[in-house]
Design brief:
The protein is of the alpha/beta class. The protein folds into 2 domains: 205 residues, FAD/NAD(P)-binding domain, CATH 3.50.50.60; 89 residues, D-Amino Acid Oxidase, Chain A, domain 2 (2-Layer Sandwich), CATH 3.30.9.100. The chain is built from 11 helices and 16 strands. The strands form 3 sheets. Strands 5, 6, 10, 11, 12, 13, 14 and 15 form an 8-stranded mixed β-sheet that branches. The protein has a 5-stranded parallel β-sheet with strand order 8-2-1-9-16. A hairpin with a 4-residue loop joins β12 and β13. α1 runs parallel beside α4, α1 packs parallel to α9 and α2 crosses α9. The radius of gyration is 21 Å and the shape is globular. It starts with a strand and ends in a 16-residue tail after the last helix.
């Protein structure tokens, strides 16, 4: 089977590894030579994503590039603890979530794809019609939330919309005031400030700022939005690196995810929040390869893949919508959150999120030659 993959980020590179595992001939077309692409922040991998990496043989290199995170703590802007739960896993799971720079995750996956025998062409921004000229048996579109392939499959597909949140990320030396370990969420007046201390003494942080209208590139002054929250303000003031503002987007449910020979995966098909973007993309890669190995026809494999992934992605989208609403709740919502969360969050969080970590079957068959379908 000959496969063309459009996009060499997490979803595309992981798919290249998975498809080589089942014997496919794979070419990846990636626009950015830099593995981080246009955004260089960190990503968090929950245990479902880590188990997909294990299937791909990439778990240990990714662990080595990042660091484990055991706990997730939720704080009010005034420093009151609102919740303390296991990060990215069920409490009894011995596996720990991993946080890693996106560039290191993508770089690890690309190296694994090349080592597995895939051809990776960087600096090439292509459309489906261009890769069709080589007559591949399958086109995998991993070209992100602004996917051109999605529009090729469905000219009436909606474009991503502004989600009411902008994000600014950075790195700071760890100030004395921020000695808490783990993944910390601070619910502030204007949004959520997330920070985690790293093993080398820095703090990685990201500010998710609520704004009713989409700002211009120079309109967001992150310190102004967290000046009343002591720890976020101290971390921001100490920053040695602040990355450009990015705008959060939502996407209406995608009606056409495959046409029997081309399939959308990752953010091109179902943008995932709730810290699950990379993990869901990794799941997609493994389960797509698993279905292709288990069916004699590409169209049947894509139908099965779509049926398997849609309920899980839809449930996650609904959960992320609720999370986004909580981040943009305003002063009254913040007051209610501080009043109620300490009494209910720890008890109900696992019930609300545990299904994410109960992974589908992520095994792959041994490498075998596959016939051209």
């Amino acid at each position: 089977m000959r496969v063309a993959i459009i996009g060499g980020g997490v979803a595309g590179s992981a798919s290249a590894v998975a498809l080589r595992r089942i014997g496919a001939e794979v070419t990846v077309y990636e626009a950015y030579e830099d593995p981080a692409g246009p955004v260089g922040s960190f990503v968090s991998l929950a245990v479902n994503g880590l188990r997909a990496l294990d299937t791909l043989g990439c778990l240990e290199p990714v662990r080595a590039a990042g660091f484990p995170v055991d706990r997730q703590r939720m704080w009010s802007g005034r420093g009151k603890l609102l919740g303390d739960v296991a990060r990215g896993r069920r409490p009894e799971d011995p596996m720990r979530s991993v946080t890693v720079l996106r560039a290191d995750l993508v770089g690890t996956l690309r190296r694994a794809a090349v080592a597995a025998g895939a051809t990776v062409r960087v600096g090439e921004r292509v459309r489906r019609a261009e890769v069709d000229a080589d007559r591949p048996d399958l086109v995998v579109a991993a070209d992100g939330i602004w996917s051109k392939t999605r529009r090729d499959l469905d000219p009436g597909a909606q474009e991503p919309r502004y989600a009411g949140i902008v994000t600014v990320s950075g790195v700071s030396p760890r100030p004395e005031i921020a000695r808490r370990d783990g993944f910390n969420w601070v619910f502030g007046r204007d949004g959520v400030f997330i920070y985690l201390p790293t093993p080398d003494g820095d703090v990685w942080w990201t500010a998710q700022i609520s704004r009713k209208s989409e700002p211009g590139p120079d309109e967001v002054r992150v310190h102004d939005h967290f000046r009343t929250e002591a720890i976020p303000a101290a971390i921001i003031d100490a920053a040695t690196s602040i990355r450009a503002t990015t705008v959060a987007r939502t996407l209406a449910p995608v009606k056409c995810r495959n046409d029997g020979r081309t399939v959308l995966i990752g953010d091109a098909s179902h943008p995932a929040g709730a810290g699950q973007g990379a993990s869901m993309a990794l799941e997609d890669a493994v389960i797509l390869a698993r279905n292709l190995a288990g069916h004699d026809r590409v169209d049947a494999a894509l139908t099965a893949f779509d049926a398997q992934r849609l309920p899980r992605a839809g449930k996650l989208a609904r959960m992320e919508s609720r999370s986004r609403d909580a981040k943009t709740a305003g002063p009254i919502g913040a007051w209610m959150r501080e009043l109620v969360m300490p009494h209910v969050f720890d008890r109900f969080y696992e019930k609300a999120t545990g299904w994410l970590y109960d992974t589908p079957d992520l095994t792959l068959p041994s490498v075998r030659a596959t016939s051209r379908r």
